[in-house]
Design brief:
Oligomer: single chain
Strand order of the largest sheet: 5-4-3-8-7-6
Structural class: alpha+beta
Strand content: 25-35%
Number of helices: 14
Helix content: 25-40%
Shape: elongated
Radius of gyration: 37 Å
Length: about 600
Amino acid sequence: MVLPLAKGHGVTVALRPGVVPFRPAEQDFLRDAAGLLDRYLHGVVGTSRTENSVPRLKQRATGTFRLDLADEEVECDETFARQHALPAPGRFPLRDVLRRIPEHDRPGIEDILHHLRAQPGTFEVNYRLTADGGRLRHLHAHCTSSPDDTSQAMTVTGHVTDDTDDTEQIGQREALLREQLRRADRMISFAASAASASGTHELAAAACEALAVFGADALVIAEARHGVSHVVTAIGYDDEHRAAVDRISLTARTPLTDALRNQQAVFTPSHPDLLSAYPHFSAALPRLKRHAWAALPLPLADPDIRAACMLSFNRPHAFHPSDQPLLIAAAALLARALERCRTYDTEHERAVRLQRSLLPAHLPQHPNLHLAAAYHPAAPRAHAGGDWYDAFPLPDGRIALTIGDVEGHHTKATALMGRLRTTLRAYAAITPDPSAILRHTNSLLTTENDANPDQALLATCCFIALDPDTGRLDCATAAHPTPLVHTPQGAVTPHITPGLPLGVFTRTPYPTTRLTLPPHSRLLLHTDGFTDTPHTDPDHARERLRTALAATAHDTIALALHQITTACLTTAHPNDDSAVLLAHLAAADRP
């Protein structure tokens, strides 16, 4: 998306991967972001411009020289000698001058000398010398090579001016301009990320990544609630430091509370600056992990809600005059996106509560069977999911273990998940055969899909009927990952023939596989949230699950489940939700 900037600043370009266009709400946000850049960018551009040139005199110290190319000797005055670190005016071998030239510049100097020998004329050349102390000096020579009687250019005369100060100033201005352009580019990138961020945590992560160009490595967003600070989200803060900025009275004097209370930016470049403005921090100073802070108000649409963000730096940071308008603009972008993301968070929490409410509140108790289960929601951008697990007694005394996954991440998937779980229980009350239960459930879902193809959804499922007293089980699956089995003798890989997903064809067979597990065996049922993760090979992820199951074989069932999920759900904000059900067969008298 390309948006023009006023005041001759050009355009902003917002890019993101893929071919999905920006939604209208995102387009409105990016237009607001362009307006903010219009407002603050002139402060950045202005710092990179040189003053208007006016006629003025500037004194230059110029050294003169005469170079005899035949003898390779230089005759020079006092200024030239001082410029080239020669002991005094006089005649010196050319090598005494060349030894001060940086080694990687010497091939170029040799080419210049060769050209002077071969081509008489007047030339200008810029070159560098290494002065005492290692500083590079930049010199400018204006010279004329003159031929001798053989028409060969053998003598070079001219004068040299030291341009080190001017060259360094130009380099500093160019470096500053490059840095400012890099920061402005990050700001534009942040505007696009903020427009599509799902949830406050993702928004804070995007802001922290964009503002790392300033040297910031942590960020906290807080609101004023009932006279104290309330942390909304934080990136880069451990629990101790997050707690240190949470629930602080707004009457206390800290950079964050000052920004919240006064709605003004507070820049603290170093520990001495912190102590100067906040002397009461002297006792806490040795425990502070950060060395500079920028607390910035977040201008929300509702003036009654006060919010601020605080950037932290792991080393002292001198805030350049051009930093401040960009950081204030970043805070304004954060504010524009924060309200939308807070709404997103609320919707996601509501969806997760709905999802959890449809899962069983309790698992069945049996002296020979111990069960543990868990559901892990996806990151906010993925919305609600359709993963479920269940366990319940069957009419013949066995225990049903089920797990499944409805396609999609929306409330329709969650609603269908709840219906399928209820349907499985209803058919299980009629027949305990897993194959028949899946056939009936598939027929029902397929009929619904055929009646309303535009709203059709598919589901995978695994249904196991387990006898805890004998270890015998019947298993049927509808395109669901095969359960993992671990016995006291090691891992077992059962050969289970899967059927098609539920909802495809009415007359789909679901073969039943029969196994007998010895005492102290463990059975792990899981959804593909554990294996189909970005940048991970599914086979490798499944092997990691199998290894974790074996490693926890002697742990309690609850501890084993915790360790398995910790080891195998490798990201704090997964793209897909996941469910897992772990069963442990205790010792029993077997017939």
